[in-house]
């Protein structure tokens, strides 16, 4: 099983749980929408965006954890692995999901009020402002999560290359010594004689 297949499977489980939690967030706000009740919509929108932002951050942490777990299980990582992981992340981390959730939340408020014969006017409550904040946060956070995971992989790649480089130099010197032990012995003796003459 390739690392992409492993990550696609684990990412799918994390993604499904994440979407489930996103769907449950509006419930506590919609339960407040009642006829003849003064509702501080601006505070509601702010709190809703905060809940979504927190859930997105936690989702990013889980994606990062799953990536690390898969890489540790594999043992090594390559630039090809990085490209595959990047595609897997892109498939389950799209800002549009959160932007659409905000629009659906606003529509749900309108539908809830319509049951009581009331209407909701988004323009009146300047819904464009919290939506703009939601869009900006979703795009920036998705980019940040992807960048953080790819940076983790870059660090692993650098460590592996450094280890390979160090091992390569040691292996070269070891082979050289094994093949030319007499020459190394003679060179050592010559250096000892020269140093002895210089220090007299």
Alpha carbon gap, first and last residue: 69 Å
Strand content: under 5%
The whole-number mean of residue pLDDT values reads 84
Q: Treating each run of at least 4 consecutive H or I residues as one helix, how many helices? A: 7
Strand/helix succession? HHHHHHH
Percent helix: over 70%
Shape: elongated
Structural class of the secondary elements? mainly alpha
What's the main sheet like? none
Counted up, domains total: 1
The count of strands amounts to 0
Rg from Cα? 30 Å
- Unreliable stretches, pLDDT < 50, 5 or more residues? none
Core attributes:
200 residues, mainly alpha, 7 helices, 0% strand
Describe the structure.
It is a single chain. The longest helix has 52 residues. The protein is built from 7 helices and no strands. The model has no long low-confidence stretch (mean pLDDT 84). The chain has one domain. It starts with a helix and ends with a helix. The protein is mainly α.
């Amino acid at each position: 099983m390739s690392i992409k297949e492993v990550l696609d499977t684990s990412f799918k489980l994390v993604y499904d749980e994440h979407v489930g939690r996103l769907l449950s967030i509006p419930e506590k706000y919609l339960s407040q929408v009642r006829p003849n009740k003064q509702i501080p919509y601006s505070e509601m929108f702010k709190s809703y965006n905060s809940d979504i932002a927190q859930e997105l951050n936690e989702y990013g942490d889980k994606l990062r954890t799953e990536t690390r777990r898969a890489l540790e299980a594999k043992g090594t990582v390559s630039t090809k692995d990085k490209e595959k992981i990047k595609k897997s992340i892109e498939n389950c981390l799209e800002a549009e999901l959160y932007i659409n959730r905000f629009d659906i939340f606003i529509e749900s408020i309108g539908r809830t009020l319509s049951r009581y014969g009331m209407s909701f006017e988004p323009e009146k409550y300047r819904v464009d402002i919290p939506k703009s904040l939601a869009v900006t946060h979703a795009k920036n956070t998705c980019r940040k999560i992807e960048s953080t995971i790819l940076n983790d992989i870059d660090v692993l790649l650098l460590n592996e290359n450094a280890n390979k480089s160090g091992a390569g130099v040691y292996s070269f010197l070891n082979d050289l010594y094994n093949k030319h032990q007499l020459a190394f012995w003679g060179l050592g003796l010559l250096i000892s004689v020269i140093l002895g003459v210089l220090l007299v």
